[in-house]
Design brief:
By secondary structure, the chain is α/β, with parallel strands linked by helices. The protein folds into 3 domains: 108 residues, 2-Layer Sandwich (Beta-Lactamase); 176 residues, Reverse transcriptase/Diguanylate cyclase domain (Alpha-Beta Plaits), CATH 3.30.70; 223 residues, Alpha-Beta Barrel (TIM Barrel), CATH 3.20.20. 40% of the residues lie in helices and 21% in strands. The protein is built from 17 helices and 18 strands. It has an 8-stranded mixed barrel with strand order 10-11-12-13-14-15-16-17, surrounded by 6 helices. A 5-stranded antiparallel β-sheet has the order 2-1-5-4-3, sandwiched between helices. Helix 4 runs antiparallel to helix 8, helix 6 runs antiparallel to helix 7 and helix 8 packs across helix 9. The protein is elongated.
Length: 538
């Protein structure tokens, strides 16, 4: 059997992970093409020779491709980057990678990969229409995916954050098409420098990218400033602050992504107590270390069971008879659980917390001394409901239930946005089919409430206490409560109002059509005595 020639070896190497190989000149003309072209709306590969590369690319990604042609150095590789083909909004997405070979500086090699059926986060992520960058809501998953890929190939990764000072003033003194061009070029620069297309918009004038540790952040910052300066009629440009931190190899990819998520949110919110402009990189490094240490303490509290469980009654407003208890958690180091739970959600630790609370509630209800009439509601974060690992653990735990399933209800909290509502509803319906009730918590507190109600079939909604606290004083809130109760009734969904503290509030809510209530009027949280196991307190 003969061996491959040198050129064929290179081609085999390229096509092992790609479907199309292109050589493109400085001017953007395709001078050589080999491979499959079915997603590109051309008849055959020969038609590509002599055509423009940007003609194959959707408008959103043309600037990215132009930037790569202009800036890729000899011996430098880029990608993989997620782009759309030029056939319109419904065009197939493809992954591009490439390099400029030493000795062949006059062309840039591009490879196109079409097979993305595994559905990586970077493919599914929503992108900003102006920059092509991943929207803030999807950046956590993209970052995790990039970190996991980097760990597999032994690549060291950094996080860099960019803050554009004066972007609004710049936009006010240039024409709209110039401002649009600036955003397009900004996205191209950041995406081209990123690892695995992990580049995201974090707020007005704030951006984050994950990139190889040898990438020079100063070069990116200078390039962005020069772009704004060249487009500015007053030649002032935009002042850009940037900072970088190395991702510690000791942290797992998931923990690192959680810590990054928390740091980025602090940055995006402009929390100067955590991230300051002076010593930007130093501040980021300090924040990451503090976050990592806090995550360790949180896990330690879970492992050593340094938290307590409380129960608060929920009653029928007509009869004042107990319906069920909500399980609440308290941390020893923090009187109010709000900050700890928010931290857990932003770092991804909430899945471990939710898993533990669920198992403790099941243990309580499974104990022989527990009254069979007692029912508990357990909170599950929207973020947990999006985790395949948590869902697997949830099904496994519920399969072992040995008490009436109606005694255990799940409250889906809205504090963390559910991105895949269709998948979440499949999980919820499987839980309901088993015999458990499901409640949508915090209804009305966030912008997604009615979207959730439209997409998720549930048994109850729990109305946010902010409505209850003001409804006696403001007719508007009372009418909103009445409308919510009417809508829920039409959908055959029960309603629960929280934060009820007075008899007047109770009577008002009953008159508005609310079914059940929770609050100090009916009882404060009291300890839930979880049975001991293996000689240790739960």
């Amino acid at each position: 059997m003969g061996t491959l020639g040198q050129q064929n070896r290179f081609l085999a190497f390229a096509f092992a992970s790609a479907d199309l190989l292109l050589e493109v000149s400085h001017e953007g003309t395709i001078v050589f093409a080999l491979g499959a072209v079915h997603p590109l709306s051309v008849e055959d590969v020969e038609c590509l020779n002599g055509s423009r590369l940007t003609d194959l690319i959707a408008s959103r990604d043309k600037e990215l491709v132009r930037h790569l042609l202009e800036t890729v150095d000899v011996g430098q590789r880029f990608g993989p980057l997620n782009i759309k083909a030029s056939a319109g909004d419904d065009a197939d997405q493809v992954m591009i990678s490439g390099c400029r070979f030493p000795g062949h500086e006059d062309v840039v090699c591009f490879t196109f990969s079409y097979d993305m059926c595994s559905g990586p986060a970077v493919v599914k992520a929503e992108r900003d229409g102006h920059t092509g960058l991943v929207e803030a809501e999807g950046f956590d998953d993209v970052a995790l995916e990039a970190l996991q890929s980097a760990r597999k190939v032994g690549k060291d990764i950094k996080l860099s954050l960019f803050s554009f000072e004066g972007q609004e003033e710049f936009a006010s003194r240039v024409k709209s098409d110039v401002a649009e061009e600036f955003l397009s070029q900004t996205g191209a620069v950041l995406r081209a420098a990123s690892f695995a297309d992990a580049a995201g918009l974090q707020g007005d004038g704030k951006y984050a990218i994950l990139h190889a540790s040898d990438t020079k952040i100063e070069t990116i910052t200078d390039r962005l400033h020069n772009i704004s300066k060249n487009l500015d009629p007053e030649k002032e440009g935009i002042r850009i602050e940037s900072g970088s931190i190395e991702i510690e190899a000791e942290m797992s990819a998931r923990d690192a992504a959680g810590a990054l998520s928390f740091a980025i949110k602090q940055f995006a919110c402009g929390d100067d107590s955590e991230i300051i402009v002076d010593g930007f990189s130093s501040s980021l490094e300090t924040l990451m270390k503090k976050t990592g240490a806090r995550m360790s303490r949180f896990r330690s509290a879970l492992a050593q069971k340094k938290l307590s469980f409380m129960q608060q009654p929920i009653v029928d407003l007509k009869t004042k008879v107990l319906h069920h208890y909500e399980v609440l958690v308290r941390f020893e180091e923090n009187k109010s659980p709000f900050e700890m739970i928010r931290f857990a959600e932003e770092t991804g630790l909430v899945m471990e917390l939710d898993d533990m609370i669920l198992k403790q509630a099941i243990r309580y209800l499974s104990h022989t001394d527990t009254d069979e009439q007692v029912s508990l509601a357990v909170n599950v974060s929207g973020r947990s409901l999006s985790s395949p690992k948590f869902i697997t653990n949830l099904y496994r735990a519920m399969a072992e239930v040995n008490f009436p399933r109606s005694n255990l209800m799940l409250e889906i909290t809205e504090s963390s946005i559910i991105e895949d509502l269709e998948q979440a509803n499949l999980v919820i319906q499987k839980i309901r089919k088993l015999g458990h009730k499901v409640c949508l918590d915090d209804f009305g507190a966030g912008a997604a409430s009615f979207q959730y109600l439209r997409s998720l079939v549930v048994d109850y909604i729990k109305i946010d206490g902010a409505y209850v606290r003001t409804a006696l004083k403001r007719r508007r809130e009372a009418m909103l409560l009445k409308a919510i109760a009417g809508l829920a009734g039409d959908l055959e969904i029960g309603t629960i109002a929280e934060s009820i503290e007075t008899k007047d509030q109770c009577e008002m809510l009953l008159g508005l059509g609310i079914d059940q209530g929770q609050g100090f009027l009916f009882g404060r949280p009291t300890p839930l005595q979880i049975p001991q196991q293996d000689g240790q307190a739960a």
